[in-house]
Each structure stands twice: as C-alpha cells, then as structure tokens.
Amino acid sequence: MSEKKGFIEVIDFHKSFGSKKVHQGVNFFVRKGECLGLIGGSGTGKSVLLRSLVGLEKPERGQILIEGVDIVPMKERQLVEIRKKVAYAFQGGALFDSMTVFENLAYPLREHFGFSEKEIHKQIMEQLKEFGLEGSEKTLPGNLSGGMQKRVGLARAMMMHPEVVLYDEPTAGLDPYNTKRIQESILSLKEKGVTSILVTHDMPTVYAVCDKVALLQQGRIGEQYTIEKLRQEPPGAMSQFINGESA
Ligand SMILES: Nc1ncnc2c1ncn2[C@@H]1O[C@H](COP(=O)(O)OP(=O)(O)O)[C@@H](O)[C@H]1O
Ligand SMILES: [Mg+2]
What we know:
Number of strands: 10
Bound molecules: adenosine-5'-diphosphate, magnesium ion
Number of helices: 9
Strand order of the largest sheet: 6-7-8-3-9-10
Strand content: 15-25%
Mean pLDDT: 91
Low-confidence stretches: none
CATH architecture: 3-Layer(aba) Sandwich
CATH class: Alpha Beta
Radius of gyration: 18 Å
C-alpha cells in the first residue's frame, strides 16, 4: 500500500462506459477535515467519481482508499458500513417524494440504528432546526421550494453523522439566499471536522468553503491549487475553465 496521504485517496482511477473512457488515471487525496473543490465541464465524470467513492460504481482499474483501506474490492455488505462514514449528498436531493420530510430524515436512522421512536423524533427536530427547516416536518418534498429540498437532502445525509460528505452540485439552481445557507451548512460541518469533496460549477461557493481545488479535464486531474494560490495568481487551464474559455 502507498504511503498514507489523506483520509481519502484516489489512485490511478480508470472508468469507462462501453467504449467511452471517462476517467483515465485520476489521482488526488483529501486530508482529514479538508474540503476539496472538484470542478470540470459537464460530462467529465465528476458525479461518477463521487458515486465510486461510496461504491455505487466500480472502476476498471485503480484504488479508492478511505482511511487507507481500498473500497474497490468490497462487497455490498462492507460498503453499507462505508456509507455510514461517507455520505453522498445526491445531485437533486434524491428525496422520497411520497414520504414527508420527517419520514425522509427518519429513514436512514431506522435503516441503520436501533433508536427508539422518541429518540428519532428528538434527533430529527434538532436537525430541522440546524438546517433552518423548522415546521416542514409534515410536508411532502414536492411542496417545498428547490432550496428547501436541497437542504432536506443535506439534512438527511447528515443524520448519520458521517466523517466524509460528498456534495454533488449542492447549490445548482439556487438563489443567493439559499446558496448562502448551503455554504453555511458546509462550513458548520467543516468546523466539526467533516472531510468533504464539493463538486460544483459555483465558484463563489468554492472560494467560500474549499481549501483546494482540482480541475477534472480529459479523464485526469489537470491542475490542482490551494485556494490561496488561486486567489493570488489564477493559473493556466483552471483560469481558462473558470473564465469560460475552455470546457
Ligand atoms: N450509468 C451510465 N451508463 C453509461 N454512461 C454513463 C453512466 N453514468 C455516467 N455515464 C457517462 O459518463 C460521463 C460522465 O458522467 P457524469 O459523471 O455524470 O458527469 P458530470 O457529473 O461531470 O457532469 C458522461 O458522458 C455520462 O454520459
Ligand atoms: Mg454530475
């Protein structure tokens, strides 16, 4: 095994769909408590990479180390344990439409822990307050605004108190107010020591919450910089991408 570089480490990751090579040797790591911003054009494989980090996709080649342990060869039973530690906040929220907000949040707790209903109720009420969702517990997701749905999705992913959170475009389509609320939630989790990867096209959010940024381009991490470096002297390919001069 390679020298341990971070809480999450992806080594020589290759993934294809049919003849289409999406990832052709992706390498990066994220240290404990750090937030990595992952940017790149549409269809470059950002979501597939996140899905792979919770074992929902398998690469043809490469390793995905979580705390030094490769999850690629793991069977579903072991992956269930990994998903308690690593939460994937899906693009679009992926809420159960026919369940109330309360039931959506209760789902992971009932699935994974033996809490009493009283304890579940207490935890959910606290969580709704934390995410500014008080009073929405009896509402169906379809009757909430897009911004609130995203927050419910995030609140649900957080019910398990994960050590890692993978955010897939959490602010896409949100107005500035809801974008700010999401940024605040990400920062508050970061203060609690949560390690994260943020996939987004929203550069202000990257600047607000990330420690470093990587650009996924042509199947590889083309460039990677710390936020400080990015602020000081905008580098080549990443600068072009951010300024809309390349895909
Ligand atoms: N299940 C799948 N079957 C076939 N192709 C897929 C599948 N999932 C993703 N892809 C393809 O992989 C590429 C990367 O997808 P994705 O990770 O969703 O991109 P991004 O999130 O960067 O926009 C796209 O070309 C997409 O069409
Ligand atoms: Mg995507």
